[in-house]
Automatic annotation (TrEMBL):
Residues 352-475 are annotated as: Lon-protease-like. This is DNA repair protein RadA. ATP binds at G96, E97, P98, G99, V100, G101, K102, S103. CDD domains: RadA_SMS_N. The gene is radA. It comes from the Bacteria. The middle region has homology to RecA with ATPase motifs including the RadA KNRFG motif, while the C-terminus is homologous to Lon protease. The keyword Amino-acid biosynthesis does not apply. Residues 67-216 form the RecA family profile domain. The keyword Endoplasmic reticulum does not apply. A motif (RadA KNRFG motif) lies at residues 253-257. DNA-dependent ATPase involved in processing of recombination intermediates, plays a role in repairing DNA breaks. Stimulates the branch migration of RecA-mediated strand transfer reactions, allowing the 3' invading strand to extend heteroduplex DNA faster. Binds ssDNA in the presence of ADP but not other nucleotides, has ATPase activity that is stimulated by ssDNA and various branched DNA structures, but inhibited by SSB. Does not have RecA's homology-searching function.
Length: 475
């Protein structure tokens, strides 16, 4: 007879830093590569049973929406990203690199909310109360309805919530708060899950808008378990360059509004202020025509932004010429250089190429390909493009120009800022004609071009005999 084993299955092992599980003990985590973080995981022994309900189920048409109406945060750009403002009972996660200005932004939001006579509780686990008070004095954020507490224990934070009964709760940050009786150190997977779940549970039951500050890893993702992003209602990323005062808040997840919307801010010594028209920060004011420059129209969320692309091309003495980019995707730059050489006869394989943006803008959208190509050819030939020209369009590997989304909004934004000519891709049905078309929109002349070679000839950056248009398949 076959022997039956009566020994209970042994629980596995789990990493206390990232939650990675394995069947046997190892000294180093196979996911986050942390040493000594793998420990035996306790097996669950309890079973779920029926329990009393908190509120009875009702038809969806009888559910009131008045309790979840938007309330302004006092910061218009943040309201734009959130879809209208703060929602009672919502859990918001704000993540960003160290020093980008997360605490300054949330202190401004807390002060503006307290100014509207809504009680606000600001819990700091990274700084002392006096340090936060010094920042509030500098930014003008001292308000009677703004309460401040420096705590790192979850139980103490819940006690402050019971005593204060705030409308807005800010926790800076969730990785510094620890729960007693839970395995792991503050910031670990188990601790972050327990702390976030407890705070979100209080937020839902008491209709408290809760904003949690999250840390990021070296690759820019939110630190901690992925379940943290699933628990919250809104995930915001605070982006910015250390060498620039310009900051962006981008919505990555939003249950109450649009996703991928952005808000623009200016971070200075006096605090953080909203920038309602950030286009001028990314366009350089030149006194005359300058070779190697072109203005692109990119789309950040639903907001069109104008950004200037600059290029510098010099002969190289190296066997492998340099390809240096700043604010641009290096792979897109390499692709545009290959298309210019193959389909336009612009040979830059023996030249050093430097391409960058103005004001710390980051252009990862393919709509900036045409502006990049114009800037590269202009820098190579030493011929400046005409004044007041913007270009937008994606370049294909065959040298054709592809349409980009929301083209009318981009053209209207460029016309509002005083540009006179826009170079855009042709409609798919017009590509076979291989000839530019033009029309006028809000006083701006819009030029339809089918391919990048036609755009370069139209702007007189190259002669007609220097480039050859890509072949059109016969139908």
């Amino acid at each position: 007879m076959a022997k039956t084993s009566t020994r209970a299955a042994r629980p596995g092992y789990r990493c206390t830093e990232c939650g990675w599980e394995t069947g046997k003990w190892v000294g180093r985590c196979g996911e986050c590569q942390a040493w000594g973080s793998v420990a035996e995981a306790s097996a669950p022994v309890h079973r779920a049973a029926a329990a009393p309900v908190t509120t009875p189920a009702v038809p969806i048409g009888e559910v009131s929406v008045e309790e979840s109406s938007f309330r302004t945060s006092g910061v218009p750009e943040l309201d734009r990203v959130l879809g209208g403002g703060l929602v009672p009972g919502a859990a918001i996660l704000l993540a960003g690199e160290p020093g980008v200005g997360k605490s300054t932004l949330l202190l401004e939001v807390a002060a503006q909310t307290a100014r509207l006579r809504h009680r606000t509780l600001y819990v700091t686990g990274e700084e002392s109360a006096s340090q936060v008070r010094l920042r509030a004095d500098r930014t003008g954020g001292v308000q009677p309805e703004l309460y401040l507490a420096a705590e790192t224990d979850l139980g103490a934070v819940l006690t402050h919530i019971e005593e204060t009964r705030p409308t807005l709760l800010v926790v800076d940050s969730v990785q510094t708060i620890g729960a007693s009786g839970v395995d792991g150190v503050p910031g670990g997977v188990t601790q972050v899950k327990e702390v976030a779940a407890a705070l979100i549970r209080v937020a839902k039951t008491r209709n408290i808008t809760t904003v949690l500050v999250g840390h990021v890893t070296k690759d820019g993702s939110i630190a901690g378990p992925r379940v943290l992003e699933h628990l919250v209602d809104v995930v915001l990323h605070f982006e910015g360059d250390r060498n620039s005062r310009f900051r962006m808040v981008r919505a990555m997840k939003n249950r109450f509004g649009p996703v991928d919307e952005v808000g623009c801010f200016d971070l200075s010594a006096d605090g953080i202020t909203a920038v309602t028209d950030p286009t001028g920060l990314f366009v350089e004011q030149h006194h005359g025509q300058v070779a190697g420059t072109c203005v692109a129209v990119t789309l950040e969320g639903r907001r069109p932004l104008l950004a200037e692309v600059q290029a510098l091309v010099t002969p190289s003495a190296l066997e492998r010429p340099r390809r240096t980019t700043s604010g641009l995707d290096s792979s897109r730059v390499a692709m545009v250089l290959a298309v210019l050489q193959q389909h336009c006869g612009v040979r830059l394989h023996a030249h050093d190429v430097f391409a960058s943006t103005v004001g710390g803008a980051r252009l990862h959208e393919p709509a900036s390909d045409l502006a990049l190509a114009i800037a590269l050819v202009s820098a190579s030939h030493g011929v400046a493009p005409p004044t007041g020209v913007v270009a937008m369009g994606e370049i294909g590997l065959a040298g054709e120009l592809r349409r980009v989304r929301d083209l009318p909004q981009r053209v209207a934004e460029a016309a509002r800022l005083g540009f006179r000519v826009a170079v855009v891709p042709s409609e798919p049905g017009q590509a076979a004609r291989r000839s530019p078309e033009s029309w006028v929109v809000d006083g701006m002349k819009v030029l339809d071009v089918p391919d990048v070679a036609s755009a370069l000839r139209l702007l007189r950056l190259v002669g007609r005999d220097e480039v050859r248009p890509p072949r059109v398949p016969q139908t």
